[in-house]
């Protein structure tokens, strides 16, 4: 317990950093992922091409490489942002490709007649997608989105290697101060467990409230 009690402030700062990264990157991933899912099913070929390229490139790029591109590559082009914001961009963009495919799979479960009925009433593609298709699609993909965001929370550990304060980065300080390696990692793992269980509980509640009964 000494590792935790004597370094509670350090663990707290790291845990809060991981929470911030997870929340901000999740919001970015959800927003971009939904937009890209809309592009993937759009009647305009150019938009479908953008959505397909976004998913193909990001899903097949190692997350660590994306961090290098964001944190080391963008400053060379004059983009100067805090490292934490670069980490949010890397995590959010990477995860958005998985959110996109989850949402697209949900869109495909909505009967085609729903969209045709909306268009027969004079609704545009955007109106049909936003008011008819997506509300139904989300009900079927709550669990996959929850699993994706849990993965995002764990992937945030990579940010610690790029001078971003988060839970795993506390290990460096603890190691330098001579604390037991095993117990240092035990408390770090417990922090990630608390966070992932919280996300899991939230999405279980959402699924019970809005999920499609199977």
Automatic annotation (TrEMBL):
Family named by the database record = Belongs to the binding-protein-dependent transport system permease family. HisMQ subfamily.
Protein name stated in the entry = Amino acid ABC transporter permease
The membrane topology of this protein is: Multi-pass membrane protein
Checking CDD domains in the record gives:
TM_PBP2
**Compartments (UniProt record):** Cell membrane
The record lists the membrane-crossing segments as 21-42, 181-206
PROSITE patterns, per database record: ABC_TM1 (PS50928)
Which terms are listed as keywords in the entry?
Amino-acid transport, Cell membrane, Membrane, Transmembrane, Transmembrane helix, Transport
What's one Pfam family here?
BPD_transp_1
Ranges of residues in domain ABC transmembrane type-1? 15-203
Q: What is its main location?
A: membrane
């Amino acid at each position: 317990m000494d590792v935790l009690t004597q370094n509670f402030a350090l663990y707290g700062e790291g845990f809060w950093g991981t929470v911030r990264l997870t929340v901000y990157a999740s919001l970015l991933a959800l927003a971009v992922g939904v937009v890209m899912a809309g592009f993937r099913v759009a009647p305009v070929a150019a938009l479908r091409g953008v959505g397909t390229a976004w998913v193909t490139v990001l899903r097949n790029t190692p997350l660590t490489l994306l961090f290098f591109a964001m944190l080391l590559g963008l400053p060379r082009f004059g983009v100067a942002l805090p490292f934490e914001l670069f980490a949010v961009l890397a995590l959010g963009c990477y995860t958005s490709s998985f959110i996109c495919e989850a949402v697209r799979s949900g869109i495909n479960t909505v009967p085609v007649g729903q969209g045709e009925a909306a268009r027969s009433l004079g609704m545009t593609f955007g109106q049909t997608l936003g008011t008819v298709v997506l509300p139904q699609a989300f009900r079927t993909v709550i669990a996959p989105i929850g699993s994706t965001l849990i993965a995002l929370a764990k992937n945030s550990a990579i940010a610690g290697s790029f001078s971003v304060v988060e839970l795993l980065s506390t290990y460096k300080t603890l190691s330098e101060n001579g604390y037991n390696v095993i117990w240092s990692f035990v408390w770090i793992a417990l922090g990630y467990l608390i966070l992932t269980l919280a996300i899991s509980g939230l999405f279980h509640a959402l699924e019970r409230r809005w999920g499609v009964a199977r």
